[in-house]
Amino acid sequence: MADFYQNGIITTLHNIANRPVDDLEKELLSFSKQRPMGLILPSLFSELEGPALQNIVKELQKVPYLSQITIGLDRADESQYRYALNFFKALDQNHKVLWNDGPRLQALDKELQALGVAPRELGKGRNVWYCMGYKLATAEVESIALHDCDILTYDRGLLARLIYPVAHPRFNYEFCKGFYPRTANGKINGRVSRLLVTPLLRSFKTILGSRDYLEYMDSFRYPLAGEFSFRRDVLNDIRIPSDWGLEIGVLSEMYRNYSHNRLCQVDIADNYDHKHQALSIDDQTAGLSKMSIDITKALFRKLATQGVTFTSETIRSLKATYYRIGLDFIETYHNDALMNGLTLDIHQEEKAVEMFAQNIMNAGQHFLENPMEAPFVPSWNRVASAMPDVLERLKEAVELDNEQYS
């Protein structure tokens, strides 16, 4: 059971009383009359064949307060898209599947590419971006939650707790980030958050001194959680990375656009497990290796926009500081694991820290050598300025796909 301690500069909403999900849903149903609610599910087709998404759909069938569900489908051909439409028919709520690889959305994407206002990289960020555009185009919901489709421990209480802070009419939160413990099969997971992000933020503080942005980022208990919720007006101005820096990029955009008291984080699960990425020590283009590089580049870019000047010497100092702090954290997590009857492989943890340390150098060098890199997807406000009818065309393409292939 959680405590009530508030750490950092972001409000933390705890699970102190294990309130029954039925009570939460009853309230949310009443809130929905004033603030209609929706959900975004970014999915790979392969996830439709796994146990996680099948259970998620079963749980969502019991949710009474959602007005609209938007599913972004990646890596699917026509037969797989038809399969997906049939798969999601089990949902009672109004729902649409965005066929991101289909001819209609591909044609629209090609036009946006020609204007220089489309995502340049395939992946979750691109998928989420188009789903956000569809939410703006339909204008049917005011409060929106987003969560991944590979959650093996999913139950509908996760969604209720996630969307509650932005759905409550008397709360003023524009954005809410979910957090949870990460354990499975008797061990602690969440290596990138534990062994990269937190030690790296502490290392930036050591090198650069205390900065409001670093205090803000360090306030989030699980900054890489793929679960967050927001009000619809957030979607107009947000600019997000299309790579593995998505979660860090979203938090950075919230920092740029809103005061701290409009943001919060919420405890959404007693435990959380999903599919795990390989460490990929020998391949910087895959797994946790690529993820660590993208995340680190996202932090370099954000700090640079605040006037921080990075040099090769700064990056070497950052790497050395990180390495020492990262190793210290391994002992902390090891002791925590033992006290809770869990295991933690110190050798594998140290291999991860060594790889992350090298990737901090790689990310820093890439940042220095590519000063004109523009990794962010343009905001929908800018896209609509370049193509005024883009939202109407996006909505039409999605609905025609759903009608034609059903």
Write the layout of secondary structure elements.
Elements: E1 11-13, H1 21-31, E2 37-44, H2 51-60, E3 66-74, H3 78-87, E4 94-99, H4 103-115, H5 124-138, E5 143-146, H6 156-167, E6 175-179, E7 183-184, E8 187-188, H7 191-208, H8 212-218, E9 228-231, H9 234-237, H10 246-257, E10 263-267, H11 287-305, H12 312-339, H13 346-369, H14 380-386, H15 390-405
Parallel strand pairs: 1-10, 2-3, 2-5, 3-4, 6-10
Antiparallel strand pairs: 5-9, 6-9, 7-8
Outline the structure in words.
By secondary structure, the chain is an alpha/beta fold. It has one domain: Spore Coat Polysaccharide Biosynthesis Protein SpsA, Chain A (Alpha-Beta Complex). It contains 15 helices and 10 strands. The strands form 2 sheets. The chain has an 8-stranded mixed sheet with strand order 1-10-6-9-5-2-3-4, sandwiched between helices. The termini are far apart. 45% of the residues are buried. The model has no long low-confidence stretch (mean pLDDT 94). This is Glucosyl-3-phosphoglycerate synthase. Keywords: Glycosyltransferase, Transferase. One of its GO terms (molecular function) is glycosyltransferase activity. Its EC number is 2.4.1.266. It is an enzyme of class 2 (transferase).
